[in-house]
């Protein structure tokens, strides 16, 4: 705005000659530089977001980049129109709305996806006979004891730690979900039983490393069960039940071995 005002008295961006013809001056292209700085900064912010929460599920990056590049090209080609700031506003609005949509599917405590997003994923899988969907259910052992002994704030810390263990051990294509309370689910597309076993083993290794390295007041213990989603036979309830039954079977064995009291 300040430069535009200055331009009225000292032409630095454009001037209009005696024949009322508009002419751009070299400094006008500084706006393109600013535009692309905003573009790269926004791209950087998206990547930082993905590092923390995982890949955006509802935001194709072209929704942000497309309007900005189109606005720049049109303004560069056609004299007398100004589209840079309009296109920038459209792009930033798109990314803001998309992130708001993402947040509606996220658990506020752990940053993982929530039950609503799980239902969405399963709805999509039910329509795709080739999805080869697998799920891993994870339950925190003696979580009530952690809450009762150390307080609910430490209990929240334990849930955040479990989320970290899951994020650090999961494959890229896996979607981490806080299912309910102290239960978590990993949804993995294009998988098989062997891959699910490997992910379970990776979670156990990461958990062991966490307990050895972090020095918390508590020791985290997880019971884990996995299942494959059969498009022809399963629905949401039967899929959950298979995971839950396998997880509960492990929990029972821990009780029998005295690992959980």
Q: What would your notes on this structure say?
A:
With 261 residues, this protein is of the alpha+beta class. It has two domains: 2-104, no CATH class; 115-256, Alpha-Beta Plaits (2-Layer Sandwich), CATH 3.30.70.270. Helix content is 57%, strand content 13%. It contains nine helices and six strands. The protein has helices spanning 2-9, 30-53, 62-77, 84-104, 115-126, 143-150, 152-169, 193-214, 236-256, and strands at residues 14-16, 22-24, 134-140, 174-180, 183-188, 222-228. Strands 4-5-3-6 form a four-stranded antiparallel beta sheet, sandwiched between helices. Strands 1-2 form a two-stranded antiparallel ribbon. Helix 2 (30-53) packs antiparallel against helix 3, helix 2 (30-53) packs parallel to helix 4 and helix 6 (143-150) crosses helix 7. The radius of gyration is 26 Å and the shape is elongated.
Shape: elongated
Give the topology string: H per helix, E per strand.
HEEHHHHEHHEEHEH
Question: What radius of gyration results from the CA coordinates?
Answer: 26 Å
- Could you state the CATH homologous superfamily of the largest domain? Reverse transcriptase/Diguanylate cyclase domain
Using DSSP, what is the number of strands? 6
Cross-sheet strand order for the largest sheet? 4-5-3-6
What CATH first level of the largest domain would be assigned? Alpha Beta
Low-confidence stretches: none
Pairing-aware structural class of the strands and helices?
Answer: alpha+beta
User: So how many helices?
Assistant: 9
Largest sheet: 4 strands, antiparallel
Quote the beta fraction.
5-15%
């Amino acid at each position: 705005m300040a430069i535009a005002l200055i331009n009225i008295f000292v032409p630095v961006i454009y001037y209009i000659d005696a024949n009322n013809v508009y002419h751009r001056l070299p400094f006008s292209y500084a706006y393109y530089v600013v535009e692309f700085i905003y573009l790269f900064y926004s791209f950087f912010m998206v990547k930082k977001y993905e590092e923390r929460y995982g890949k955006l599920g509802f935001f194709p990056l072209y929704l942000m980049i497309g309007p900005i590049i189109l606005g720049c090209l049109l303004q560069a080609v056609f004299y007398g129109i100004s589209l840079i700031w309009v296109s920038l506003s459209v792009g930033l609005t798109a990314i803001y709305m998309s992130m708001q949509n993402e947040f509606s599917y996220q658990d506020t405590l752990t940053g993982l996806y929530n039950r609503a997003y799980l239902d969405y994923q399963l709805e999509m899988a039910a329509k795709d006979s080739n999805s080869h969907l697998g799920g891993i259910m994870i339950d925190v052992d003696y979580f009530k004891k952690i809450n009762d002994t150390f307080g609910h704030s430490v209990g929240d810390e334990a849930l955040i730690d479990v989320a970290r263990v899951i994020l650090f051990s999961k494959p890229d294509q896996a979607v981490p979900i806080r299912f309910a309370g102290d239960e978590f689910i990993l949804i993995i597309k294009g998988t098989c039983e062997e891959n699910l076993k490997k992910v379970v083993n990776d979670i156990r290794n990461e958990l062991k490393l966490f307990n050895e390295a972090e020095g918390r007041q508590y020791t985290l213990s997880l019971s884990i069960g996995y299942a494959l989603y059969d498009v022809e036979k399963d629905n949401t309830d039967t899929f959950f039940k298979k995971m839950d039954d396998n997880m509960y079977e492990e929990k029972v064995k821990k009780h029998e071995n005295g690992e959980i009291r």
